[in-house]
């Protein structure tokens, strides 16, 4: 007779249902597998056979056929071992007939019968719920991840024997097994966040960071080496508005598929991803034969920090363009195309010139041409998407000595900054309640018209600024968005002249370095 | 269609580019371009002071014929030339031992009686250097003195720009053909110089700006001027090549003094220590040029500071932030963050300062270059 069991195949961030069918019938002793399988899936038969033997179950000298349906779908990954093993056990009569109906199973087996963690558990459980399946058997290591999805009966198993035991349980005993580990706290998040108070001076940079965090604006930091650009960027996650449930689920899905949840459940802080400048295009965008999310997808709803941005290969920088435009990465393969969300806030840090000391003529010996070429490695379309640009000067030792103790509680400590960001965030939430966007930086031309109303006088001022500073229409719009966030931060309902003036100070590099 | 004599001279000039010494000698022995053109192969072969390569070049150049094509290009591009055999050849240049056989120019050549000062200095100049270049360029122009320079980025171009703007005459000596604009960023100045003076070069039209051209070009800058003024120079600077030529050619050298902690002024201060004139005001230079009209006047300090607002002039500088900004920027240009640190107003928020700076920038009271603010 044929036993079938539900499991899933990952396809990008989504999961497709796969049915494992096992048939044991008389014939020459043989084990066959079919269903468009990749190498690692084909190897499952060997792992399953040994794991069963080590669990004390000998395979009968019969013909065993295993099929993974649908055959049209190419199957990859390690999650098929456990469903195959359990389906065989059921066919052998070790598990009660019909017990495996409407149970979703996924897990890798070791030769000793250990059930090992798999990638993409979260989308699989979501798929199971969507299909109306309530019971899942998952590797113990992925249990926390699966529990993100509510209203499910999830059994985390550590070994094949444990899985068999569970399937035999009934009533209170079974309930107790399902509740296992429920009260275990997720692994502690690494220490306290570094604080902006650690950086002395640099109020201009801190203010820009605050604006960026509040409105989700892309930001460029330009300054001499050792000026604290990296230090500042590392402190940015600490002042970002908290992640919403919906966003957290999306981000967790990406990390689940990337195999990066490491036993934890829902991701509760915004990601901060800082690729090294030698990062390859595929590492950034995502890829592989069955594509996994790349670094820029891992920065979804969080910060993508490019330190020494001009040293990234131009191909790697160009790959950022599409995600910055469409908020997602599309990877096409001959079999299918995959879509990974990538809505991130770009923070780029760079030196102003090859020696890093421009425009200080005492220390910089680079020619104008060198400076131009150095900054020119960032392409125009990329710069077009950057709303804020701050230069960070060298701190004099006097300023450093003047540093007040207890700056962490000061105006530019992380706590105070976070509070202001939260306030601005709340204003934006109310403003965009009826729209599909949630941050000022995402406003299009229509939204700008609705939400950035200038008085007649300010409009005239804006027009004169547009002319006298030779702004482009795009930088004009950028300016309005930043001014909106500044007004939100300072609790003003309308954008005024002072907001515009401040926003102008952060106008982007190409207006100032190449203007 | 072209004057044959001119073509022969151009032919000699093209030879002189490759072998200046041999051509100078041939000019003496053969009596000029015509003589050189008429040398037969046998005569060339018998010429004892020519190397084998030079002989081969002379013969092959003769086989190529007269350079009508180059002459055509010159006519089309409005490029003129003057040859050492002509009366019109600049006297100051003729005195040099290695005077070029022919010089090419667009616009015009300076008249013999024109007083000229060459203003040279660092390409990556400081703000002080920029202001000084502008000051001397402008004030010399007003006094009717022409500015000679190399149209380079930094001090050179700045001084010429200021001179032309003040209605003066200025001449640029290039390290490329006169139809090649280098650096490109000075294209605007290049056009203006043709109207208000000239661009001059010893290189035939079309020659690119090659690195080894520039030290040689520097000898022409010093040759063309009466006084050489060094505005800013580092300890090691190409400027000193020009200074050495100037001393060889008997030109007076002046230097603008700078702060001794300023690396960019080290070279110019050292020149002063070695006996160069101290260019502490334009009158000093005019005195040296024997300009009797202005030498009696006392130096006018406000002209040196370029009309920067004197502390008493408060119009548009009302309010404590504005006054603070002016106080900080009066000493030296600074970034917004530096102003914030130096202004001494701990209660002020950075955004208030940024907004105020922007207003000042729009009002045209300060300018911002790559994040560094300075008073206009």
What does this structure look like?
The complex is a heterodimer of chains A (515) and B (376). Chain A is an alpha/beta fold. Chain A has two domains: 2-178, Ribosomal Protein S5, domain 2 (2-Layer Sandwich); 196-436, Rossmann fold (3-Layer(aba) Sandwich). Chain A is built from 23 helices and 18 strands. In chain A, the strands form six sheets. In chain A, strands 11-14-17-10-18 form a five-stranded parallel β-sheet. In chain A, strands 1-2-4-3 form a four-stranded mixed β-sheet. Chain A has a three-stranded parallel β-sheet with strand order 5-8-9, with helices on both faces. In chain A, a hairpin with a 4-residue loop joins strand 15 (328-332) and strand 16. The N and C termini of chain A lie far apart (77 Å). The model of chain A has no long low-confidence stretch (mean pLDDT 87). Chain B is of the alpha/beta class and 376 residues long. Chain B has helices at residues 4-18, 20-30, 33-38, 41-46, 52-64, 68-77, 91-94, 127-142, 155-165, 187-196, 213-224, 239-248, 263-273, 282-288, 292-295, 301-304, 320-331, 336-342, 350-362; strands at residues 80-83, 102-107, 116-120, 146-149, 170-173, 197-201, 227-230, 252-255, 277-278, 334-335, 366-369, 372-375. In chain B, the strands form two sheets. Chain B has a nine-stranded mixed β-sheet. Chain B is elongated, with a radius of gyration of 25 Å. The model of chain B has no long low-confidence stretch (mean pLDDT 87). Chain A binds chain B through residues 201-207, 222, 352, 358-359, 361-362, 364-369, 391-393, 396, 398-399, 402, 411, 464-465, 468-469, 486, 490, 498, 501-502, 504-505, 512-513, and chain B through 122-127, 129, 153, 183, 185, 262-264, 334-338, 340-341, 349-352, 354-359, 362, 368-372.
């Amino acid at each position: 007779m044929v036993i079938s069991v539900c499991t899933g195949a990952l396809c990008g961030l989504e999961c497709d249902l796969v049915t494992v069918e096992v048939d044991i019938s008389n014939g020459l002793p043989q084990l066959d597998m079919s269903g468009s399988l990749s190498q690692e899936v084909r190897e499952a038969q060997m792992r399953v056979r040994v794991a069963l033997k080590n669990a004390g179950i000998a395979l009968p000298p019969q013909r065993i056929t295993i099929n993974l349906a649908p055959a049209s779908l190419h199957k990859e990954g390690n999650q098929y071992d456990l469903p195959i093993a359990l389906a065989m056990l059921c066919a052998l009569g070790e598990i009660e007939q019909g017990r495996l109906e409407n149970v979703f199973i996924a897990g890798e087996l070791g030769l000793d019968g250990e059930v090992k963690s798999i990638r993409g558990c979260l989308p699989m459980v979501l798929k199971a719920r969507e299909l109306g399946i309530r019971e899942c058997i998952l590797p113990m290591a992925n249990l926390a991840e699966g529990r993100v999805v509510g209203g499910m009966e999830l059994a985390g198993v550590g070994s094949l024997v444990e899985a068999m035991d569970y399937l035999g349980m009934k009533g209170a005993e079974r309930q107790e097994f399902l509740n296992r580990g429920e009260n275990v706290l997720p692994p502690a998040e690494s220490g306290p966040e570094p604080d902006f108070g650690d950086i002395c001076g640099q109020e201009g940079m801190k203010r820009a960071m605050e604006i960026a965090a509040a409105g989700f604006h892309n930001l460029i930091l330009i300054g001499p080496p050792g000026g604290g650009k990296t230090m500042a960027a590392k402190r940015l996650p600490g002042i970002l508005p908290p992640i919403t449930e919906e966003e957290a689920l999306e981000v967790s899905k990406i990390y689940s598929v990337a195999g990066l949840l490491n036993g934890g459940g829902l991701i509760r802080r915004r990601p901060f991803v800082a690729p090294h400048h030698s990062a390859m295009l595929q590492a950034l965008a995502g890829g592989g034969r069955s594509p996994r999310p790349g670094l820029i997808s891992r920065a979804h709803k969080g910060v993508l920090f490019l330190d020494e941005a001009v040293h990234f290969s131009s191909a790697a920088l160009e790959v950022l363009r599409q995600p910055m435009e469409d908020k997602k990465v599309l990877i096409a393969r001959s079999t299918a195309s995959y879509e990974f969300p990538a809505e991130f806030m770009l923070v780029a840090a760079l030196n102003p010139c090859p020696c890093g000391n421009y425009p200080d003529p005492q220390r910089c010996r680079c020619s104008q041409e060198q400076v131009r070429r150095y900054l020119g490695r960032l392409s125009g379309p990329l710069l077009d998407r950057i709303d804020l640009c701050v230069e960070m000067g060298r701190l004099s030792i006097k300023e450093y000595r003047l540093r007040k103790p207890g700056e962490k509680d000061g105006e530019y400590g992380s706590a105070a900054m976070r509070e202001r960001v939260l306030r601005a965030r709340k204003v934006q939430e109310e403003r965009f309640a009826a729209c599909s966007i949630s941050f000022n930086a995402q406003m299009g031309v229509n939204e700008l018209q609705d939400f950035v109303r200038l008085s007649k006088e300010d409009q005239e001022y804006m027009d004169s600024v547009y002319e006298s500073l030779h702004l482009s229409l795009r930088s004009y719009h950028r300016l309005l968005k930043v001014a909106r966030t500044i007004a939100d931060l300072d609790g003003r309902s309308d954008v005024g002249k002072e907001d515009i003036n401040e926003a102008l100070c952060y106008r982007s590099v190409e207006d100032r370095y190449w203007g | 269609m072209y004057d044959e004599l001119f073509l022969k001279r151009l032919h000699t000039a093209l030879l002189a580019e490759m072998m200046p010494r041999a051509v100078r000698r041939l000019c003496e022995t053969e009596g000029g371009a015509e003589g050189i053109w008429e040398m037969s192969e046998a005569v060339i072969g018998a010429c004892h002071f020519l190397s084998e390569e030079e002989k081969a070049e002379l013969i092959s150049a003769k086989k190529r014929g007269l350079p009508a094509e180059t002459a055509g290009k010159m006519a089309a591009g409005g490029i003129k030339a003057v040859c050492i055999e002509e009366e019109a050849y600049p006297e100051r240049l003729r005195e040099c031992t290695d005077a070029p056989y022919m010089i090419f120019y667009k616009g015009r050549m300076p008249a013999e009686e024109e007083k000229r000062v060459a203003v040279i200095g660092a390409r990556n100049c400081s703000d002080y250097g920029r202001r000084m270049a502008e000051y001397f360029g402008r004030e010399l122009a007003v006094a009717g003195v022409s500015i000679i320079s190399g149209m380079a980025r930094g001090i050179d171009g700045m001084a010429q720009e200021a001179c032309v703007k003040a209605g003066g005459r200025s001449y640029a000596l290039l390290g490329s053909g006169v139809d090649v604009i280098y650096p490109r960023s000075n294209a605007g100045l290049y056009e203006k110089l043709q109207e208000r003076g000239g661009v001059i070069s010893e290189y035939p039209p079309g020659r690119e700006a090659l690195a080894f051209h520039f030290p040689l070009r520097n000898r022409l800058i010093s040759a063309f001027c009466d006084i050489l003024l060094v505005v800013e120079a580092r300890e090691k600077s190409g400027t000193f090549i020009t200074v050495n030529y100037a001393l060889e050619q008997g030109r007076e050298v002046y230097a603008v003094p700078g702060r001794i902690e300023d690396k960019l002024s080290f070279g110019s201060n050292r020149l002063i220590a070695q006996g160069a004139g101290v260019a502490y005001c334009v009158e000093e230079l005019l005195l040296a040029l024997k300009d009797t009209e202005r030498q009696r006047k006392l130096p006018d300090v406000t002209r040196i500071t370029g009309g920067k607002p004197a502390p008493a002039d408060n119009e548009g500088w009302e309010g404590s932030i504005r006054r603070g900004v002016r106080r900080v920027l009066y000493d030296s240009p600074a970034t917004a963050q530096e102003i914030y640190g130096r202004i001494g107003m701990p209660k002020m928020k950075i955004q208030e300062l940024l907004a105020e700076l922007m207003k000042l920038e729009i009002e045209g009271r300060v300018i911002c270059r790559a994040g560094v603010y300075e008073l206009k």
